[in-house]
Amino acid sequence: MINLYTGIIEDRKDPEKMGRVRVRVVGVHSENRVQFATKDLPWSLVMNPINNAAINGIGTTAMTGLVEGSTVIVTFLDEFMQQPLVLGSIASKHSKKPDTSKGFSDPNGVYPKEDMIGESDVNRLARGVPVDTILNKKIENQIKEVKTALSGVTWNEPISYAAEYPHNHVMQSEGGHVIELDDTEGNERVGINHRTGTYTEINAEGTQINHIVGDSFHIVENNGNLYVKGKCNITVGGDSNILCQSDANIEVANNLNLQAGGNANIGIKKDFNVVVDGNYNLKVAGGHNVQAGSYALTTSNYDISGSQVRIDGSRIMIGEGASTVSLGITTMKIDAPIFGNKPDVIVPALTVP
Fold first, then answer.
1. Phi, psi of 352 (to 5 degrees)
2. Is 174 a catalytic residue?
3. pTM greater than 0.85
4. 47 and 14 within one domain
5. Does residue 333 sit in helix, strand or coil?
6. Fewest CB within a 10 Å sphere: which of 102, 147, 241, 338?
7. Same domain, 97 and 9
8. How many Cα neighbours within 13 Å face the side chain of 195?
9. Does 55 share its domain with 171?
10. How many domains does the chain have?
């Protein structure tokens, strides 16, 4: 028959790094640390679950979860009680901070923590009591009223915690990192949370939220593909830079709208070709300046309208095919001789030599 005992872990800094702990066992060891110091306790092996290979680093780290102050179930592998084996841990409720000068307590005085006195050791997120948890950072860092381009429509970052005991399965590390597998009916979630507030969560609707409080790096060493079946909104609070080190292709099935609040600059080292199957309209509130080594315009009809038009050049050529040039202007000055077909030049109340 196996005899079972309870004990308190007092040391987990195994010099062999095998996941062993020192346990002060009730009914076996004295609470007097002067007579029986923590360093004199034998190292206890820790039993792993069957889904943990516990060989060559395969499986979960042996020490995941256990800390100084944890209450555990222990048995002994020898009749002299020098080879203890931890079979598991027990959650409890602490009515007060233990006296750390005595045994059966955390010698470092860390656990149980002051704000958890009088509470169940079961994680608050699992109990549906998210006070002073990672949820507070989510609410604090929640992004709201993000504008979308040209539409005025905004969106908010969704937060969907509504866990009910005992359906939220929580794993929390000492540093505050949290994994949640929430089976609460109607609010099933999967979440991975970093202590800083960065997290990834999938909510009951299958919506995935990725919130990063620091920098983000996304690296793909081969091809990358992104498909969004619905709308895709991208909002950048600061500058945005895109560098394509080869060809770039953009295809829009319907309308394309571009709007700049300031200047727009386009630099092209070779040819620039624009093909418009319909009308091409250009509206300039200020001046319109064109600098070109040569300028050729081929059209069946060309109309110039303005209160004042000035054409400067050492030589102005009108092609042989031109029969009529219509100028809807009141004042016109041509500082060059006109060469070419000498077409009819129609200017109301104006004679052009």
1. -110, 125
2. yes
3. no
4. yes
5. strand
6. 241
7. yes
8. 6
9. no
10. 3
